[in-house]
Amino acid sequence: QVQLVESGGGLVQPGGSLRLSCSASGSIFSIYLMGWYRQAPGKQRELVATITGSTSYADSVKGRFTISRDNAKNTVYLQMNSLKPDDTAVYYCNGLIRGTTATTPNIYWGQGAQVTVSS
To answer: FRET partner for 41 with CA separation of 20 to 30 A, picked from 50, 72, 103, 112?
Structure first.
C-alpha cells in the first residue's frame, strides 16, 4: 500500500510565501510522476504543477511557484511565493506510483492541505 502525506499549509498574508511538502511511503517500486492540484470553494480541482524529469506549471502560478523533488526521500515540494488571495484553496499532492506488488502504476492522492491567503 502506498500513502501520500502532506504538510505545510496555513494562513499567509498576500505577497507572502509557503512551502508544501508531500512524502510518499509504503511499498514503493517506482515513482513516475508527482504533482500538485488545488481546489477552491465552488470550483473544480485544477492542476498546479507536475514534476518528472522536467517540470510544468499552470499559467496562473508560473514565475511564483516552484515544484521540486527529493528522490532519496520520496518527497515533493511546492514553494509558493508572491501568494495572492486567488491562490486560496485546498492543495492536493498527486503521484503516479507503482507499488511493489503491482504490475502497473496507480494514481494516489494526499489528504489535502488548506492554504489561505488573506490579510
So the answer is: 50
| pLDDT tens-digit map of 58-85 | 999 999 999 999 999 999 999 999 999 9
Report which of 80, 69, 74 is spatially closest to residue 18, judged by C-alpha positions. 80
Helix (H, G, I), strand (E, B) or coil at 8: coil
Cell of 64: 511564483
Dmax over CA atoms of the chain, in Å, equals: 49
Q: What are phi and psi of 71, to 5 degrees?
A: -65, -35
Q: Considering only CA atoms, which of 68, 62, 80 is closest in space to residue 117?
A: 80
Q: What is the dihedral of CA 7, 84, 37, 60, to 10 degrees?
A: -150
pLDDT tens digit string along 93-119?
Answer: 999 999 999 999 999 999 999 999 999
Contact 8, 23 (CB under 8 A): no
Among residues 48, 46, 45, which one has the least CA distance to residue 34? Answer: 48
Grid cell in block for residue 53: 524529469
C-alpha cell at 71: 528522490
